[in-house]
Task: structure prediction
Amino acid sequence: MAGESYNESFFRAVYVISVAAELAGVHPQTLRIYERRGLLDPKRTSGGSRRYSQRDLERLRRISDLTEAGVNLEGVRRILELEEEVMELKSEIKRIKDSKKEEVDETHRQYRRDLVPINQAVVPFMYYRFPIGNND
Result:
């Protein structure tokens, strides 16, 4: 999940609770419990019905993996929170790196503009040999 880019349909909430529960292999009441515990936040229709997205289903799979590994629901909530924070920080680091790379590239372009080949220099280059030792 981390580092992947998703299209808009990945986030579109289309599954009703019974379909989402069946796709995730859990009981609909489990989805309600996960929502109460802050593990899921499904979208709501104007009538208040829950709608789940593909992203929610992936999150459910992650929750299942963690609970099967013996992590309790509070631990799952904290792990998911930390994973999201890591993803946000990675995104911020990438944005900063890209910005700094562009600044370095611009500085290099400026250097190339400022450099003047010796044969085009305003002051001609003259080779001068310094004497070695004292020739008095």
The beta strands are 43-44, 50-51. The radius of gyration is 30 Å. The chain has five helices and two strands.
